[in-house]
Amino acid sequence: MTTTDPTTPEPHAGKKVLERDVVVIGAGISGLMTARRLTQAGRSVAVLEARERVGGRTWSDTIDGEFFEIGGQWVSSDQDALKALLRELGKETFQRYREGDSVYISRDGARHTFQGDFPVGESTLAEIDRLVEALDELASQIDAAAPWEHPRAAELDRIQFSSWLHSLSEDEEAIRIVDHYIAAGMLTKHSHTFSVLQAMLMVASAEKFEHLIDEGILLDERVVGGMQSVSEQIAAELGDDVVHLGTPVRRLEWAAGEEGAAADGQPGRVTAHGDRVTVTARFAVVAVPPNLYSAIEYVPALPRPRLVAHQHQSMGLVIKAQAAYPTPFWREDGLSGTGFASHERVCEVYDNTVAGDEHGMIVGFIVGERAEDIWALPEEERRRAVLESFAAYFGEQALEPIAFYLSDWGSEEWTRGAYAASYDLGGLSRWGHLQNEPVGPLFFASSDIQGAGYMHVDGGVRIGTDTAARLDTAFRAAGVEPALLSV
Ligand SMILES: Cc1cc2nc3c(=O)[nH]c(=O)nc-3n(C[C@H](O)[C@H](O)[C@H](O)COP(=O)(O)OP(=O)(O)OC[C@H]3O[C@@H](n4cnc5c(N)ncnc54)[C@H](O)[C@@H]3O)c2cc1C
């Protein structure tokens, strides 16, 4: 049913009013996956998306004639849910270029090339192994879907990850390397700002530390046409009647089912007020990153524990820097394009060339305070600073790209950081158990509150599928068969 709402003083005249089984807020992979599975189960759905595009933190675009992955792009070899979806959609993938030597720049500025283990001393290598063993041992005790249930959860959540590493080792280089993978590489926060429990969730979500550091596993494949095309295809199959762009949801009015407050997760009544569309439904799925929950007004307000909990999840900050060149010139020097230098402005780099493209591309990452420093520079200086860092890995040729792009997720209103949201010290053990619980008819879905595949596209696929299944169960338990409410 589609009508025009005559009452609301919204900015868009002729605003649509829809009635659906479920309204999904956010057309990132989590929201779209929820909608895909629900419609496949015969439920009617509307997806309201703030931006004028789908895909959220996946975004593929051509800039100055070059193809850029501005957001999430890599498919890890162990990400079964995403890989199954790619097969379902008939999407093709290609492997990241990885032949040749990697580059390691040590703290004294010396540049080394290597294959296999980092070119550090034997004792540092042994110390890295020991730290990784300690991490894996602890992470093996953690259920990524419920880290707060670990018997020592509260204690582990009080200890800064940086302090914990220093309590285990005196080898600064080993600590810096292990720290780098979790702090700069994943959570994109400084390791004194998050806990051991939060770090263990990261490890447990990928099963073991090796899956986060072995770029052969982690950065295995890319999607032909770009990662955003996954969301675009899902949205196209759902159709314009389901996916509504340019429609930020400002207010969610909700009422629990007949059982009142006890009816959590049961069909109730929800009205989602978006700028262009208002949707009334039996359930809402809030599929936005947790740091944005508070940007929506809830009527009535969410229960106090949720309002408090939502203040404890924040986005990390990383700049994804990319430069395109006439050729992948580093390959002629026998280099794979992979490089690490934890003290460099750009702390890690990879060959980001699209398979078959004669142009070459380098991608690098600038994390936390260094990212803030970079954004504080005038544009030309900023570009120069990043390219000089690329040149430290690959030589002077890196200073002359044919296209250059810095992903600025921190200034995107509908994201506000990158890659993802995580808890502050003590937050995960105190508030984590609430994150996947519905409030009345409101469900929450984001890669940032998912166990396996946490903070990754794979996690979005998983939580979307899971949320749709939970809603279908709730509908059936309430005796609401598919299509009964469909319009
Ligand atoms: C730079 C970068 C690199 C990354 N690299 C990788 C990678 O290589 N591999 C990988 O697997 N993952 C990667 N990730 C992470 C991955 O992209 C995310 O985990 C995943 O895309 C999150 O999906 P989501 O649907 O949960 O959230 P999002 O993609 O954030 O989607 C949420 C959607 O909600 C919308 N929204 C927000 N508020 C409202 C509102 N009030 N009303 C309506 N709509 C709203 C947003 O516009 C957005 O479209 C990367 C992320 C970034 C930023």
UniProtKB/TrEMBL annotation:
It holds the Pfam family Amino_oxidase. Keywords: Oxidoreductase. Its EC number is 1.-.-.-. It is an enzyme of class 1 (oxidoreductase). InterPro entries: Amino_oxidase (IPR002937), FAD/NAD-bd_sf (IPR036188), Flavin_amine_oxidase (IPR001613), Flavin_MAO (IPR050703). GO terms for molecular function: oxidoreductase activity. Its cofactor is FAD. It comes from the Bacteria. Residues 29-471 form the Amine oxidase domain. Belongs to the flavin monoamine oxidase family. This is NAD(P)/FAD-dependent oxidoreductase.
